[in-house]
Amino acid sequence: MAARPIPAPIVTVESEPFWNAARERRFVVPTCAACGKAHWYPRAMCPFCGTEKIEWRAASGAGTIYSFSVMRRAKERYAIAYVTLAEGPTMLTNIVDCDFDTLRIGQSVRAVFGETTDGPPVPLFRPA
Q1: Whole-structure pTM value
Q2: Residue 46 CA, distance from chain mean position
Q3: CA distance 33 to 46
Q4: What is the CA radius of gyration of the chain?
Q5: How far is CA 94 from CA 32, 45, 110, in A?
Q6: Which domains does the chain have, with CATH numbers?
């Protein structure tokens, strides 16, 4: 999927449910059961209300590019971006399967899973 090798993520107690779902090619986000807000990155407490009642809910995989940068001088060109998910949170990710010269802020993207060197697949995004 990606042109360059992606190292395996570090799996923590807080992020383990996310990576387990990723192994099944399911995209989930942590969501507070008390206030109902989704958040990113995975953590034990809701950053909005402080409760520890976190649920992992299926995400649509839809998002928009908030900001991006193309690494043109890298051995293998790649694009990193902040993508705002339809569910609300913004996550740092890679944009793949496109002409990097056509990327634009506000562009619709869709989640896909890319393989890592020796770990669970990671969510990447490509233009919708």
Answers
A1: 0.92
A2: 18
A3: 9
A4: 15
A5: 26, 26, 11
A6: 16-127 (2.40.50.840)
Angle at 66 (CA atoms; ends 10, 29), nearest 5 degrees? 45
The conformation of residue 52, written as its DSSP 8-state character, comes to -
Backbone angles phi, psi at 66, to 5 degrees: -85, -40
Please count the CA atoms within 13 angstroms of the CA of 55 that sit on its side-chain side. Answer: 9
DSSP reduced 3-state for 22? helix
State the average pLDDT over residues 21-29.
97
Q: What is the pLDDT of residues 46-64, one digit of tens each?
A: 999 999 999 999 999 999 9
- Contact (Cβ atoms closer than 8 angstroms) between residue 86 and residue 62: yes
CA 84 to chain centre: 9
Within 8 A by CB and 6+ apart from 22, the residues are 113, 120, 121, 122, 123
- Residues 81-128: tens digit of each pLDDT: 999 999 999 999 999 999 999 999 999 999 999 999 999 999 999 999
